[in-house]
Amino acid sequence: MKLYTRLAALAAAVCVWSIGTPAQQPSPAPYTVISREARRPLPVRVIGGQEMFALDDLARLFGVTVREDTAAGAITVTSGAQTIVLSPQQPLASIAGRMISLPAAPVKDGRAWFVPVDFVSRALAPVATARIELRKPSHIVLLGDIRMPRIAARVEPLGSVTRVSIDVAPSTPHTVTQEGQRLVVRFEADALDAPELRTTVVNDTLQGIRAGDTPQTVAIDLGPRFASFRAADQAGAAGGTRIVIDLTGQTETPPAGTPGTPAQPPPPPDTPPLLDLPPAGGLRAIVIDPGHGGEDTGAKGAQGTLEKNVTLSVARRLKAGLEGRLGVRVLLTREGDQAVASDQRAAVANNNKADLFISLHANASVRPAVSGAEVFYLAPGDYAQPRPGSSQGGGETLPVVGGGSREIEITPWETAQSRHLEQSAVLARAVEVALRERIPMSPRALQQAPFRVLVGANMPAVLVEMGFLTNGPQEKQLTSDEYQNAVAQALLEAILRYRGSAGTR
């Protein structure tokens, strides 16, 4: 019995230790903090599936002060006159009453606190006294006024021409010159962020692309039969530039213009940007809501097509397009076939500080001949007025870390969308115009309606009925890749137009 008791005690102790210790994985390569003075490593650890930095390391490298307030159950990070408040239990950061979402809550390991890597860009950068830019794909952090554009290259054989496309973000002055058997693209920068310059295309005209002899250059190694080149700049995504360089071989007729000097190349194919660019034009996060899900199948076509499946398929296509073209953060209110309450859908957008909310649906009618897409924005109706007993808005006093209290603004759920109706109308019109260019529209293509899913959205919001499943030909369209891609592309174009309008000021 004594042996059994000792084994049980040992097992219990191991269990307690396992529960109390964060799940840790092997540490990946450190990040590099680059400033004009030096390059310094910033260790990173994977805890619970998240890359994390130690707050002590952030304090050492960025000159911030970290303090644990055990009485209030909070951690404060102070940069200059600004303070960030973290809670060990919540994936949130508070700055002057503004809540910022994080991928995970802070984690304590021994005496050290760890925060998700995104804490640097989402919370620390906005309050830091010096510019801080986190670049996760390259594992670097820029500190101060460092000019380090991101570079990515693509090679395309186009018949007699080999095309080299180089995406640069942000736009940076540059020159393209020939030096012997190579072209040198030289940028007015301190260095280049170019982790991937390899190409699988090698021929008699092009032998390869690589980093140049200096930190500011890219070298294009030419083949033995290279004859001439022409280069031109084109507008890129998110304020970047695409450098298009066409290489011609000796056996081909040289293109018009003087060899080795910039000239306008043929229009390039409609290819997506090569870089995962930061958001621009005021849009940082977009929430796409695939309507229905789980037992709530939505409308059903005569051939058995379910609305919940169509909306999720289009939402996934739109998410991929937005992330590729705009570099924004895109979230879906559901990733699979699960039920989500109407208010919870808007809550996802609110909690993630989304700039836009787009709810996708497929329509139904008792008349099989009815067809065409429709776009809705909120008609306030009964939701415009707070319900009896609900808050009328205004201020509410809450305690703060370190003592005292402050007043924060409360927006009642029933009136959240009412403050964005003007911009929702702008977005709805942009969506209606873009859809009309690609798919059939209903005679009542743009409408207002008191949809509950739009009521609580605290940002511009629209609902899109992509077509009628109860119409035989349209049911077939709604299940096709061509139609779903057309809807996704139209919505992407609408968001681009909205971003360029007064709505993103």
Intertermini distance: 75 Å
Low-confidence stretches: 1-24, 252-270, 384-411
Number of strands: 30
Backbone structural class: alpha+beta
Q: How much beta, percentage-wise?
A: 25-35%
Q: What is the residue-averaged pLDDT?
A: 82
Calculate Rg over CA atoms: 27 Å
**Fraction of helical residues:** 10-25%
Number of helices: 9
Largest sheet: 6 strands, mixed
Arrangement of strands in the largest sheet: 24-23-25-30-26-29
Structure description:
- This protein is an alpha+beta fold.
- 22% of the residues lie in helices and 34% in strands.
- The protein contains nine helices and 30 strands.
- A six-stranded mixed β-sheet has the order 24-23-25-30-26-29, with helices on both faces. The protein has a five-stranded antiparallel β-sheet with strand order 1-4-5-12-11. A five-stranded antiparallel β-sheet has the order 6-7-8-9-10, covered by helices on one side.
- β7 and β8 form a beta hairpin.
- The longest helix has 20 residues.
- The protein is flat and about 70 Å long.
